Amino acid sequence: MTSTVPVEVTQKSNNETTNFTSVKTLSESPDFNNSIPSSYTFDNENEIVTEPDKVNDPIPVIDYSLLVNGNHDQRTKTVHDLGKACEEWGFFMLINHFVPKSLMEKMVDQVFAFFNLREEEKQEYAGKEVVADSIKYGTSFNVSGDKNLFWRDFIKIIVHPQFHSPDKPSGFRY
């Protein structure tokens, strides 16, 4: 009989060991509605407030083809827009990037396969260092320092200047 208790993953940062339960494991637990850890809840003091005029702004779109094929003015504007998107949003949607759809679909499939691994297998990548790990799995970038954890699981993979890839799932590496 399998346990209904969510598996805790150990994450080390700054030589401190912190246990966390992955969001996927929490959400799939039969006791999910009765046992949400306090580290995943916010009180009103920590409420995230969004500026009303920013709520309806569309996600910034960057046209990569203008960076490589555009004229000087188009490249300059695109670089400006890219910087603004990074500063104000922290992300953007990239279009006309020349990455084949089949490769993007394979990558998405492999990411799903990674998150469907047993918790013990993903735990191999539960980071030891907040910034330095080339591959890091977790729910928060700094579990020992964050008062509240986000409702997300992530895998961070550094691929430049040296390529890194998890060993599992077997098809993850291109």
From TrEMBL:
Entry's Gene Ontology molecular function annotations: L-ascorbic acid binding; metal ion binding
Domain Non-haem dioxygenase N-terminal, chain residue ranges per copy: 59-165
Organism domain of life: Eukaryota
Keyword terms of this UniProt record: Iron, Metal-binding, Vitamin C
Keyword Metal-binding applies: yes
Presence of the UniProt keyword Ribosomal protein in the record: no
Name of this chain's protein: Non-haem dioxygenase N-terminal domain-containing protein
Organism field: Trifolium subterraneum
Organism placement in taxonomy: Eukaryota, Viridiplantae, Streptophyta, Embryophyta, Tracheophyta
